[in-house]
Write a structure and sequence with these properties.
The complex is a heterodimer of chains A (268) and B (303). By secondary structure, chain A is α/β, with parallel strands linked by helices. Chain A has helices at 48-56, 78-81, 102-110, 128-137, 155-167, 185-202, 213-218, 237-242, 245-256, and strands spanning 5-14, 22-32, 37-42, 63-68, 71-72, 85-88, 173-177, 206-209, 222-227, 230-236. Helices cover 32% and strands 23% of the residues of chain A. In chain A, the strands form two sheets. Chain A has a six-stranded mixed sheet with strand order 6-7-8-3-9-10, sandwiched between helices. A four-stranded antiparallel sheet of chain A has the order 2-1-4-5, with helices on one face. In chain A, helix 3 runs parallel beside helix 5 and helix 5 (155-167) packs parallel to helix 6 (185-202). The longest helix of chain A has 18 residues, at 185-202. Chain B has helices spanning 2-27, 35-51, 56-79, 85-104, 127-149, 153-163, 165-170, 175-201, 212-226, 232-255, 263-302; strands at residues 108-110, 203-205. Chain B has a two-stranded antiparallel sheet with strand order 1-2. In chain B, helix 1 crosses helix 10 (232-255), helix 2 crosses helix 8 and helix 6 (153-163) packs across helix 8. The model of chain B has no long low-confidence stretch (mean pLDDT 92). Classes of the chains: A alpha/beta (268), B mainly alpha (303). At the A-B interface, helix 2 and helix 3 of A face helix 6 and helix 7 of B. Bound molecules: adenosine-5'-triphosphate and magnesium ion. Chain B: It comes from Lapidilactobacillus achengensis. Chain B: It is found in: Cell membrane. Chain B: It is a multi-pass membrane protein.
């Protein structure tokens, strides 16, 4: 079976060739089987966001290879790759167009990966009921707000809609970069539960960065820890299921030779 | 009365151009200077063809298409070559100055006399009523088509690009292409206005573009200050109102005895004033609320 994602010797540099050069990803090799839900953890500056941005295409890569469902996308633009990738950002403002309505935003997402034309309307009446049903699944009462401007909704509501937009078209790969970090603890849990539900329902291959160790252990069937641009820990299945937070910290110390330094880490 | 009618006919024409500028200005957040070149470009192409005996409506359409081409050039330089938008506009505008002279073969072409224009195709009307009729019909068509377009799949994607580029890319929208499309429609409309203007005034002149962007922005700002928060279609309709009001103000100023040579100084001062109105409104509102608050707090202390 082809891997949902395959990274080969992926490197990423900032300010290459200057005195400020930073070698942030140091030859990442990673394969994800279809349906794997991977929690990604690591200290500040470990390179987690850089990894996701490289996969999504927002950081061009010139060393290494990225394949999604067997297709080499290493040199494709963000927009081109979007046919394969659903994405939720940390900032709830980033995933939706604030001046467009809920329905317009969702309709845009429905056409992800397809050619857009000038002879059909962007918002289609016959899709309205489907969109309402999808919104109802979020349990946030958003099904009645199709014609509300998204900018008027709360951060949690916007993030939930972004999540829905990212998954509507069953992406080959779902990328979540601390997508609950900007939300209050309660909303954060709602969005996290939604995520788990959508991922399970649609069997989505997912990479989810989180600073919440408990979430990292509770959700997903695989866990990787990045340290200084390399994968330091990679556990899956039963081995992951048995881990506790103290185990994880001990494992980190064992692998990297130091304590996990992270100003935002949540151990609860 | 004459003043009203002439302001109406010119205002209607200006509003076609203002709607063009609005697309880049509000959807892409770019003040596109290309306008100052595409306006006389439309006039030049149309005048040249009319003199050669081409059907005036065909000549007008050519003017529109030439404007689209100018927009394509600016859009390409801005998106693919990453040249800052202001500079892109200035580059195209400067180049177009020569292009317009080349097209006309001289610095102006007269359309008076026997030649057929869209105005003289309507024989039993005075120039200003013909201009008003044509202005209304063309505007209705333009606004209608724009509203439809910006609700199609591509149009919605174009709006999303202006609103949140990152999100558009994540949803598979090629932002560069959408920007270029908006640049093209925008400059096509501006050139269309130039083309009609030449036919109404009876001449095309290589310097007739000077002031285009200032006039268009003034019309947009008047519309936005007078009525806030509107849907796209309604906004376009109010811009027509803004352009007519602006033209009326200028006609009054001219009648009042201001030297036409000073007119562009006046355009610039007016736009500077209009642009500061939203801030002034906010400041005044804030001051009122503060004074009210101070009064209430003092009254409270007295209790
Ligand atoms: N645009 C950039 N220019 C230069 N250096 C950068 C840039 N972006 C990131 N870096 C550096 O790359 C390293 C990795 O950053 P990255 O954002 O991937 O970390 P992270 O693991 O996501 O951290 P956090 O948990 O704080 O989000 C950091 O040291 C950061 O300073
Ligand atoms: Mg990060």
């Amino acid at each position: 079976m082809t891997n949902a994602l395959e990274l080969r010797k992926l490197h990423q540099f900032f300010n290459q060739g200057t005195v400020n050069e930073r070698h942030v990803l140091k030859g990442i090799d990673l394969k994800l089987a279809p349906g794997e839900f991977v929690a990604v953890i690591g200290g500040n500056g470990a390179g987690k966001s850089t990894l996701l941005n490289s996969i999504a295409g927002s950081l061009p890569v010139d060393q290494g290879q990225i394949k999604i469902e067997g297709e080499d996308v290493t040199y494709e633009t963000v927009a081109k790759r979007a046919r394969l990738i659903g994405r939720v950002f940390q900032d709830p403002q980033m995933g939706t167009a604030p001046l467009l309505t809920v329905e317009e935003n969702l309709s845009l997402a429905l056409l992800r990966g397809q050619k857009r034309n000038c002879w059909s309307f962007g918002v289609k009446k016959k899709q309205r009921q489907f969109l309402q049903e999808q919104l109802a699944l979020l349990n946030l009462g958003l099904e009645d707000r199709l014609s509300a401007e998204i900018g008027l909704l709360s951060g949690g509501q916007r993030q939930a809609i972004t999540l829905l937009m990212a998954t509507l078209q069953n992406p080959a790969l779902l990328l979540l970069d601390e997508h609950t970090a900007a939300l209050d603890p309660q909303t954060s849990q709602i969005v996290m539960t939604l995520t788990a539900q959508l991922v399970a329902e649609k069997q989505l291959t997912t990479l989810m960065i989180t600073h919440n160790m408990a979430d990292a252990l509770k959700f997903g069937n695989r866990l990787i820890m990045l340290d200084q641009g390399q994968i330091a820990i990679d556990v899956a299945g039963a081995e992951k299921a048995q881990l506790t937070v103290p185990d994880l910290l001990a494992l980190f110390k064992h692998k990297s030779g130091q304590d996990l330094t992270d100003d935002r880490v949540l151990l609860s | 009365m004459d003043l009203l009618i002439s302001s109406l006919s010119l205002g209607l024409l200006w509003s076609i151009m203002a709607i063009g500028v609005y697309l880049t200005f509000r959807i892409l957040d770019i003040a596109d200077m290309t306008a100052e070149g595409s306006f006389p470009l439309g006039a030049a192409i149309t005048a040249r063809q009319i003199v050669a005996g081409v059907n005036p409506w065909v000549a007008t359409l050519s003017g529109f298409l030439a404007g689209c081409l100018a927009g394509l050039i600016s859009g390409f330089m801005h998106t693919k070559l990453k040249i800052p938008a202001l500079l892109t506009g200035i580059l195209t505008l400067t180049g177009l100055y020569s292009v317009n002279l080349l097209i006309m073969g001289q610095s102006n072409i007269s359309l008076l006399g026997r030649v057929k224009t869209v105005i003289s195709l309507l024989p039993d009307m005075s120039t200003s009523s013909a201009a008003i009729l044509i202005g209304v019909v063309v505007l209705a068509l333009v606004i209608g088509l724009l509203v439809v377009f910006f609700n199609t799949e591509v149009g919605l994607a174009a709006r999303a690009v202006g609103n949140n580029e990152e999100m558009s890319a994540a949803n598979g929208i090629n932002a560069d292409n959408m920007k270029i499309i908006i640049y093209m429609i925008s400059n096509g409309l501006i050139a269309l206005a130039g083309s009609l203007m030449a036919q109404i005034n009876g001449y095309a002149d290589s310097s007739m573009g000077i002031g285009t962007i200032v006039i268009a922005l003034a019309a947009i700002i008047i519309a936005e200050v007078l009525v806030a928060n509107l849907s796209f279609g309604m906004r376009l309709v109010t811009i027509v109102g803004g352009a007519i009001i602006y033209r009326l103000i200028i006609a009054l100023v001219l009648q009042w005895g201001v030297d036409p040579n000073n007119l562009r100084l006046f355009y610039a001062l007016m736009l500077a004033l209009f642009l500061s109105v939203p801030l002034l409104q906010k400041r005044i509102g804030q001051r009122r609320r503060r004074q009210k608050n101070i009064a209430e707090m003092e009254a409270d202390q007295d209790d």
